[in-house]
Amino acid sequence: VLQGKCFSKTINQYVYEMCPFDVARQKEGSSSGGTSLGRWDRLEREGAGFRFFFTDGQKCWNGPERSLSVT
Question: Is the distance from CB of 33 to CB of 49 less than 8 angstroms?
């Protein structure tokens, strides 16, 4: 049911987009492209819902690779 669908949330000037079973990214404003927050990793049951995990995103300039988890 979620294959091929994407969901987004705007927080301040950033738009966070996750596409289950594909990729997650962060964009600034209405810009295209954006920063990779990771590729699909896994889905885990959490309480009455689920948590989506994305890993191996773009490396921070002074730190680890970015990742995202969404409940």
Answer: no
- What are the structure tokens assigned to 44, written together? 């885990």
Whether the pLDDT of residue 1 is over 80: the answer is yes
Contact of 19 with 53, CB cutoff 8 Å: no
Q: What are phi and psi of 57, to 5 degrees?
A: -80, -175
Q: Let me know: does 17 contact 7? Beta carbons within 8 Å.
A: yes
- Burial 17-28, CB ≥16 within 10 A → b, else e: bbbbeebbbbbe
pLDDT per residue as tens digits for the range 30-68: 767 789 999 999 999 999 999 999 999 999 888 899 999
Partners of 43 in the beta sheet? 52
